[in-house]
Task: inverse folding
């Protein structure tokens, strides 16, 4: 059995045994309680630049689908990130067994059907992703809620390839141009707070930036994600389907949850 | 440069003998009025040509596509126009009032308070008694909400367990101590009265708090000021021009008049918390721009003759106000001064007045949406057009559109929370609700009375039948097999009244009308897979199996049809049998709502349980239907759409109404009886 996963035996409740950081006071995800938010006031605008036309890899690491950016140029700066410039390393998705659940963060207790995470690392202070991943200001993750609804054409470039990465450690190349900006909602503001990776080792190194508005994906697209399997292809015994892969919310504690831009 | 100019000129208009021809787009219903307008003599030699479109929404597309050059619009339509891909619209003229021909905006929203109100910022409005024009109106409702919700002291409006509209009412009723906000709070009468009693303090400052509707002495632009001056109000939300009129101050071209109240005790409250006496220049917090004329960009090359022509037409129509004056040019009793503005893109025009923010107002993220499931590309296009249009008219939640391959996929999608609404026709409402665990929320209504269709029984005048028993052994004519009115309703009636047994019901049905019937389609393989003897039910059919023909040619004594079909019967020769009444009896066609067999299910929209309240789900479609009820010229959502029939709604529909639980229970009961008998 894998070290960790989302089943009874190895699910989020068991992570703390093997990954002590998962016990910390700066863990993610959290519930966004909109009545407790402090306004961020005026921050410099959030700025993203992504290369569109380069080969990417779509990978099944056994607990989600992930798109590796393979080191191509990108920039995330502004907003709550101070003067530092962050670079996109990979992006992946969390989902649930049925529509209406699956997002890791929740808003006033309400879950969405999924959540995309765009993981960036701080290139101004650190030399590599792995170095940054251990630092309190090492990572910045853009979170985008997914709502079941109309089909998302840009995301479909990835979804179309999921049948080819059904099993753990499967990997294919995505050569179509893809614009990550098209996967972000129209600029309607975001929430931000200091947190952690939501998968082991749950390192407390993430500045979270969660867009307030969800984007839509079709129910069929969500269904394709649930068909991924969390084990390797092996003789005879088929691995279990990855029906859901979200970590339940953890207390915000005394962390500052700020609101930037628009309603 | 010169070449480019000539090229633009050629695009903009067809020049005949040096005269320019401009194509003005009109909703089809005003085409004749438009032709009449062309007959009006003007000094300008510029020529107009009328281009008919389905409605104003289609006119916007026509102008963008160069099938027309100009269309008169409201500010909200400018918003819709700005959302059309690759648009290059410009606002080329504004429609202003004769009273204020120089005002930059149609109306500016202001807050009026008593001078001695101890307030120095907007947060302190909390707990006060407020006076408003009415629900959903611009300066008295939308604009205050848009501006107040930005402030931390204003209650949150993003509780997803209640609808966006109820969130607004709840927030207002907890922010202000008492208010007067009259009008229909919900398009559904039951919801409206439930909210009026739950949030009654929003009515307590009205003249008639129990009614809380128009007319009320403390509603409207002046009423809000009266509420402030005479009824204990502390803050009023209204517009500048009425403040000036109310306090007897000069307005634009109108000199000072008689005051309802002395202006000395009152001030405007500005956004920064300062006060300005009402005698001085107002500080406003947002404005609604003027209506105007939208054109595509090529028209700019040859603008002057067009502008002159429009101005001369407006002047020519001012005194008599013919149909084209309002229907075609979009001018009105008060608004008929046409002013040339510097051509400006519609979005910039709205932004100038801070009006985009008012149009786009939300309730706090994440915004609720209601997802309508459709099955064709043309329905998707219509759904998206309805979405933008409803959003521009402040109807929330926002409508979203989901496309699935088939009707059953849509029902499944609603069950799985992939969308919120899917439609079914006729008796499918009962079956679909059962299979997919859904329930009806609203349905189409028809005719001038905007009612359901009814299954009716038509008999010849002068015959003696008054109840169903009288027709045993007689002959019958029917709408075709499988229809509610032709088969389901009479069959259910006979079984339910124990006039026939419920085993082998089709056979028993034939035996009851032993004189022979015409039930078209009864012998089709799919309707009669076992090949039973159904000859009795075919006996009275001829080449034309239409039930009206069947009755006319005296092949039957009674015809079972839908109330919508009655127009094909001669009302001087036929009348209805009132099978819904215990005593039976007869009545004229006009009374089919009270004299029928039973109410028919119409196209109905189903929702799943639990995900979003029915009030939230139904609010957007019902509000849109209500808004367009008398304004099909804005968006005719029921007629033909891009040359397709019955897209989303049936062409014959005239409105939408909340489905009563009782009706649905009846349909389920009928469904179960018929299903039980068909299986036997």
Result:
């Amino acid at each position: 059995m894998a070290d960790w996963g989302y089943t009874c035996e190895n699910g989020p409740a068991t992570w703390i045994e093997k990954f002590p950081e998962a016990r910390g006071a700066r863990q993610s995800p959290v519930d966004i309680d909109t009545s407790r938010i402090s306004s961020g006031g005026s921050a410099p605008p959030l700025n993203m630049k992504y290369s569109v036309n380069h080969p990417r890899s779509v990978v099944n690491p056994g607990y989600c689908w992930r798109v590796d950016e393979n080191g191509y140029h990108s920039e995330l700066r502004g907003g709550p990130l101070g003067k530092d410039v962050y670079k996109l390393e990979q992006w992946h998705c969390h989902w649930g067994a049925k529509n209406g659940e699956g997002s890791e963060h929740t808003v006033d207790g309400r879950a969405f059907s999924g959540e995309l995470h765009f993981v960036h690392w701080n290139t101004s202070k650190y030399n590599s992703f792995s170095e940054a991943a251990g630092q309190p200001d090492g990572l910045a993750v853009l979170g985008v809620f997914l709502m079941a609804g109309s089909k998302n054409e840009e995301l479909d470039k990835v979804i179309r390839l999921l049948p080819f990465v059904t099993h753990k450690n499967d990997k294919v190349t995505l050569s179509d141009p893809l614009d990550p900006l098209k996967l972000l909602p129209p600029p309607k503001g975001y929430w931000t707070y200091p947190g952690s990776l939501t998968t082991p080792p749950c390192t407390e190194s993430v500045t979270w930036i969660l867009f307030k508005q969800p984007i839509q994906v079709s129910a069929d697209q969500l269904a394709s994600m649930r068909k991924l399997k969390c084990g390797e292809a092996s003789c005879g015994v088929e691995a279990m389907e990855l029906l859901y892969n979200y970590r339940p919310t953890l207390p915000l504690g005394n962390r500052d949850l700020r609101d930037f831009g628009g309603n | 440069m010169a070449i480019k100019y000539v090229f633009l000129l050629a695009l903009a208009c067809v020049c005949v003998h040096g005269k320019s021809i401009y194509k003005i787009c009109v909703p089809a219903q005003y085409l004749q009025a438009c032709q009449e307008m062309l007959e009006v003599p003007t000094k300008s030699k510029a020529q107009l040509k009328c281009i008919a479109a389905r409605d104003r929404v289609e006119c916007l597309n026509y102008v963008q596509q160069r099938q027309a050059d100009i269309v008169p619009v409201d500010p909200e339509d400018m918003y819709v126009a700005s959302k059309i891909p690759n648009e290059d619209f410009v606002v080329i003229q504004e429609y202003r009032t004769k009273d204020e021909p120089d005002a930059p905006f149609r109306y500016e929203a202001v807050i009026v308070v008593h001078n001695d109100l101890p307030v120095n910022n907007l947060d302190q409005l909390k707990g006060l008694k407020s006076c408003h024009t009415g629900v959903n109106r611009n300066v008295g409702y939308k604009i205050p909400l848009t501006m107040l919700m930005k402030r931390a002291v204003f209650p949150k409006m993003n509780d997803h367990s209640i609808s966006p509209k109820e969130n607004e009412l709840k927030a207002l009723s907890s922010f202000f101590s008492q208010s007067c906000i009259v009008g229909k709070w919900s398009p559904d009468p039951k919801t409206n009265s439930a909210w009026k009693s739950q949030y009654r303090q929003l009515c307590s400052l009205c003249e008639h708090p129990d009614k809380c509707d128009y007319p009320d002495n403390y509603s409207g632009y002046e009423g809000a000021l009266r509420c402030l001056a005479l009824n204990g109000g502390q803050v009023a939300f209204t517009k500048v021009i009425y403040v000036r009129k109310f306090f007897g101050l000069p307005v634009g071209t109108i000199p000072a008049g008689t005051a309802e109240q002395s202006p000395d005790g009152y001030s405007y409250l500005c956004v920064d918390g300062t006060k300005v006496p009402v005698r001085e220049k107002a500080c406003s917090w947002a404005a609604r721009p003027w209506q105007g004329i939208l054109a595509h960009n090529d028209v700019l090359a040859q603008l002057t003759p067009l502008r002159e022509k429009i101005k001369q037409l407006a002047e020519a129509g001012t005194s008599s106000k013919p149909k084209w004056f309002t229907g075609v040019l979009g001018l009105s009793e008060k608004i008929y001064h046409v002013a040339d503005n510097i051509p400006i893109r519609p979005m910039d025009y709205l932004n100038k007045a801070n009006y985009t923010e008012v149009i786009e107002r939300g309730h706090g993220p994440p915004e609720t949406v209601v997802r309508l499931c459709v099955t064709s590309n043309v329905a998707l296009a219509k759904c998206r057009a309805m979405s933008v249009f409803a959003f521009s008219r402040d109807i929330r939640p926002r409508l979203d559109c989901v496309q699935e391959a088939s009707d059953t996929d849509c029902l499944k999608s609603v069950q799985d929370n992939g969308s919120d609404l899917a439609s079914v026709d006729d008796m499918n409402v009962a079956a679909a609700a059962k299979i997919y665990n859904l329930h009806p929320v609203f349905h189409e209504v028809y005719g001038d009375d905007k009612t359901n269709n009814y299954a009716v029984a038509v008999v010849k005048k002068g015959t003696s039948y008054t109840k169903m028993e009288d027709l045993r052994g007689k002959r019958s004519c029917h709408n075709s097999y499988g229809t509610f009115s032709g088969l389901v309703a009479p069959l259910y009636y006979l079984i339910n009244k124990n006039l026939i047994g419920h085993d082998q019901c089709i056979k028993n049905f034939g035996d009851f009308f032993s004189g022979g019937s015409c039930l078209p389609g009864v012998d089709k393989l799919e309707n009669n897979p076992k090949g039973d003897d159904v000859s009795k039910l075919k006996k009275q059919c001829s080449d034309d199996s239409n039930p009206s023909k069947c009755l006319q040619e005296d092949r039957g004594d009674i015809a079972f049809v839908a109330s919508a079909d009655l127009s094909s019967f001669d009302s001087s020769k036929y009348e209805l049998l009132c099978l819904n009444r215990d005593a039976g009896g007869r009545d004229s066609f006009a009374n089919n709502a009270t004299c029928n067999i039973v109410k028919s299910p119409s196209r109905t929209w189903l929702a799943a349980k639990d995900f979003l309240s029915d009030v939230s789900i139904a609010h957007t479609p019902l509000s849109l239907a209500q808004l367009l009820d008398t304004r099909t010229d804005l968006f005719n959502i029921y007629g033909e759409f891009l040359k397709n029939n019955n897209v989303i709604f049936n062409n014959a529909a005239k409105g939408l109404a909340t489905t009563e639980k009782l009706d649905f229970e009846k349909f389920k009961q009928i469904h179960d009886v018929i299903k039980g008998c068909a299986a036997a």
The radius of gyration of chain B is 30 Å.
